[in-house]
Amino acid sequence: GLLFWLSLGKKEIIISTRASVIFSLVLRIHPLPRRRKAGILPSLEDLLFYTIAEGQEKIPAHKFVSALKATGLRTGDPRLKECMEMLKVTLKSTSDGVMLDRHLFKKCVQSNIVLLTQAFRKKFVIPDFMSFASHVDKLYESAKNLSGGQVADYIPQLAKFSPELWAVALCTVDGQRHTVGDTKVPFCLQSCVKPLKYAIAVHDHSTEYVHRFIGKEPSGLRFNKLFLNEDGEDSAPAALTHLSKKLASFNAEKFDYVMNFLNKMAGNEYVGFSNATFQSERESGDRNFAIGYYLKEKKCFPEGTDMTSILDFYFQLCSIEVTCESASVMAATLANGGFCPITGERVLSPEAVRDTLSLMHSCGMYDFSGQFAFHVGLPAKSGVSGGILLVVPNVMGVMCWSPPLDKLGNSVRGIQFCTDLVGLYNFHNYDNLRHFAKKMDPRREGGDQRQHTFGPMDYESLQQELALKDTLWKKVSPTESNEDSSTTVVYRMEGVGDRN
């Protein structure tokens, strides 16, 4: 297609018509100040300022922060560390400590402009995040009214939690966050840790090795039954044998090893340990010891494994504490193919994530797994502490927590919330079949193709749109203006910037 020549500093590059039209379109929407020379287009920092300022010369810092939160991002997001630190420093240097002009604003945002541009152009997986969050709040309130279920009492420490506690937290694959309820209260993962340690085992040793010792089929029996399949395997993949050879070998280091993984999955948010729960687990763990000796008799453990040490390790892992907020990031790491959304770090291999989600889908909800797969159609794992770790692949991770359990050991409010969520949105694995009844799709703004803040054009790829700033501009020297050091683009065509 037609190409425009652009000049940056003393070097020349070619850029596609599409990118040129994008910037000229924005130029029409946000005219440049007259003091700028004709032909100079605004930087991405300028465009962001114009969008938030709405015609004003300055913007209050709190207006920028509020607009940022409306996209789903948090000021504490590790990816925005430079921006937030610069904002604090800059505000201290202003006369009123509140207002930012264009120059100061650009100084604050330029280090994180790519992420901010994605956010404000509604390029995240859930573009209309405020609307989505408001629907989540309604689902939360609906489930809050439920009063059935009993708090688990066979582990004394769990029995101390109030049945009124109820929390939901979510994190999308783009790092958008929403929480409602008692989301900062720590609680133990219990069985919700099982898919996580399974993922670590597969990450370290491959699916083939791990499944020498465990099966893939749900047993259809209670989670604490003494039972092996006809091949002598533990048929419940989420049982306590989800341990790799490496974890079984280094007793002094294995707990720290797993904690390090979980911290990375949680984006370094809260992951703790409840020693009181651990001691309580050991003192009331006769059934688990019975299962352990039964598995040892049937030679289900790797050779050389110390069964009692493994059980202690199992009790430790069940006693790991999280909050709904940190656990939602763990779930989002699974939803994001093993990359933590808020740090960008690769934590788990694609193989580990795929196989973990497969088993969560078929075996994650105790004896309710078939019903949950049928009605909700998403990978999930529950625990007797009242947690439900829910994964919407390529969209988000969710942690629901409420201590009252139904007769199968699942959170009453958590089950209701997950069911209602899929009843409202097309998250079920088979909701997207052709000719199927339509539900709301939060991945599309207004239920249609995503709209764009800066204009009506249908942009094919975010990578193309941000190439000027994120990739292409790194290869050339920026043109220095007499006002600031931000990157600008100069057209070599007559009349392009002459509207002012």
UniProtKB/TrEMBL annotation:
Record's protein name: glutaminase
Membership in a protein family: Belongs to the glutaminase family.
UniProt GO MF annotations: glutaminase activity
Gene it is expressed from: LOC108924274
Cross-referenced InterPro entries: Beta-lactam/transpept-like, Glutaminase, Glutaminase_EF-hand
EC number: 3.5.1.2
Disordered: annotated segments: 477-500
Record-annotated Glutaminase EF-hand domain positions: 45-127
This protein's record includes keyword Hydrolase: yes
One GO term of the biological process aspect: L-glutamine catabolic process
Ranges of biased composition (kind: Polar residues): 478-489
Keywords recorded for this protein, A-Z: ANK repeat, Hydrolase, Repeat
Catalytic activity of the protein: L-glutamine + H2O = L-glutamate + NH4(+)
Pfam families per record: EF-hand_14, Glutaminase
HAMAP family, A to Z: Glutaminase
